[in-house]
Design goal:
Rossmann fold, 4-stranded mixed sheet, Dihydrodipicolinate Reductase, domain 2, alpha/beta
Length: about 425
């Protein structure tokens, strides 16, 4: 039995709080792909396939032909930022895509003007800008965001909207009293409670407007009871946190391989140099703490030192990020991994990943918005754990540990798509081939 999925008709509006490097690389990239100027490399929704039935059946459709996703021509973009640059100017400043390509998509990007942001310098300390909402309480600002969405939807003739946080990393904070219930959260908005972060106001405004929400940064944002209740009440799918792109992606590829072979590991030292605005924001210890928490969490969950003390109980894991402007978005991430084998004999692995941060993140934004919209039309609500594949710190149901192994995450994602379409789930048991 397949589940009922409403068709992907009409326009899908993608709204990003934050029109920086990631958001503009995503938007420019979609426009470039539409014009045949490049391929959507890195995007599972555009290039990936899903095997159906037996290995001998030879049924391997593209994911986008198997489930009803919105097409690239149906997407329209909008966003908020504290700076006044339009998406073309912001993309030029981000120095990710070359000038020639940007010139070709300039007419599309120039039209995307940032709406006035809800911003609080206590949450992002290293930057400040003029394009912000200043009037009223936090509740008034939430209302103003809802009005922005209404206006955007009308002006662009959108059938549906999805919001994805591509804003700066906010300082680390733990859930407080105000985050516990919807009533306390709404009271907090009225009283300008300092424990409510700007990203939470965007998430609240999205959910109140019936818009699915994803979080690409490590901020707490909607991972609080008050907003998770709202996802259930309004039947809205959500996911987060923190795009899994560079070094952590490598980690979740390698660590399951070491564990699969019962190889030990007693040290994993990771360091990065990064010169974009994200790198600048992460110089602030509070913002870095948010990032560090998500970056550190993966190894313990994958290697399970509690289950394998002889292999991983002494693991020393350290992650550093240094702001280094000359590199811009072209981050370099080094890993030194101290492993050991048979009888404890030591070995080392070195990784030097010369990556491009936003080039890796842009296709994830595309996949996430298309899948969240699919989930919404399929009637799925609350945390979408099958989208863990995209995140460093996947959100889960309370009390459930997150699955970080990227291959398990991918299997879960594809099995969810099979389930949606009433196809057999693939267990890889395969006894039938030997009957
Ligand atoms: N690029 C990657 O590989 C990657 C991976 C994981 C997570 N992320 C996260 O994605 C986010 C975006 O990264 P980026 O490289 O585009 O950063 P960026 O600094 O280029 O862009 C972020 C933008 O958000 C804006 N902003 C900050 N607070 C805002 C607010 N309250 N409302 C509206 N706009 C606001 C900033 O002015 C800035 O233009 C960051 O939080 C980053 O940590 C990126």
């Amino acid at each position: 039995m397949s589940i009922k999925i409403a068709p992907a008709k009409g326009k899908l509006g993608i709204l990003t709080p934050g029109l920086g490097a990631v958001a503009t690389t995503f938007m420019a990239g979609v426009e470039a792909v539409k014009k045949g100027l490049g391929e959507p490399v890195g995007s599972l929704t555009q290039l990936g396939t899903v095997r159906l039935g037996k290995r001998t059946d030879n049924r391997v459709p593209k994911i986008k032909d198997f489930v009803p996703l919105a097409g690239l021509n149906q997407l329209v973009f909008g966003g908020w930022d504290i700076f006044e640059d339009n998406a073309y100017e912001a993309a030029v400043n981000a120095r990710v895509l070359n000038a020639e390509l940007l010139r070709k998509v300039k007419p599309n990007l120039k039209k995307i003007m940032p709406m006035k942001a809800v911003f609080d310098k206590n949450y992002v300390k290293r930057i400040d800008g003029p394009n912000v909402k200043t009037k009223g309480t936090l509740a008034d600002k939430a209302e103003a965001l809802m009005d922005d969405m209404k206006k955007f939807r009308k002006e662009n003739g959108c059938d549906r909207l999805v919001m994805i946080w591509c804003g700066s990393t906010e300082v680390f904070h733990r859930p407080a009293k105000v985050h516990q219930t919807l009533a306390s959260f709404e009271q907090g908005l009225l009283k300008n409670d300092p424990d409510i972060a700007p990203s939470q106001i965007y998430a609240y405004a999205a959910l109140k407007s019936g818009v699915p929400f994803a979080n690409g940064a490590p901020n707490l944002t909607h991972d609080i009871p008050a907003l998770l209740t709202l996802t259930k009440d309004r039947s809205l799918p959500v996911c987060g946190k923190d795009f899994k792109t560079g070094q952590t992606y490598m980690k979740t590829l390698l660590a399951p391989g070491l564990k699969a072979r019962m190889l030990g590991c007693n040290g994993w030292f990771s360091t990065n140099i990064l010169g974009n605005r994200d790198g600048e924001v992460l110089e602030d210890p509070g913002s870095f703490k948010s990032k560090e928490e998500t970056k550190l969490s993966v190894l313990d969950q994958i290697l399970q030192p509690g289950l394998y003390p002889e292999l991983y109980k002494d693991l020393f894991h350290s992650v550093k990020i240094n702001y280094y402007p000359p590199r811009g978005d072209e981050k370099e991430g080094w890993d030194n991994i101290d492993i050991f084998g048979w009888l404890g004999y030591p070995m080392q692995i070195k990784i030097d990943f010369l990556c491009r941060d936003s080039i890796l993140a842009a296709p994830l934004v595309l996949d996430l918005v298309l899948f969240l919209d699919l989930a919404h039309r399929a009637g799925l609500k609350g945390v979408q754990e099958w989208l863990s594949f995209y995140f460093k710190a996947p959100m889960t149901a309370p009390g459930l540990y997150p699955e970080h192994d990227v291959f398990i995450q991918l299997m879960k994602l594809k099995n969810t798509l099979r389930w949606m379409r009433g196809e057999d789930l693939i267990t890889h048991l395969g006894l039938e081939y030997y009957d």
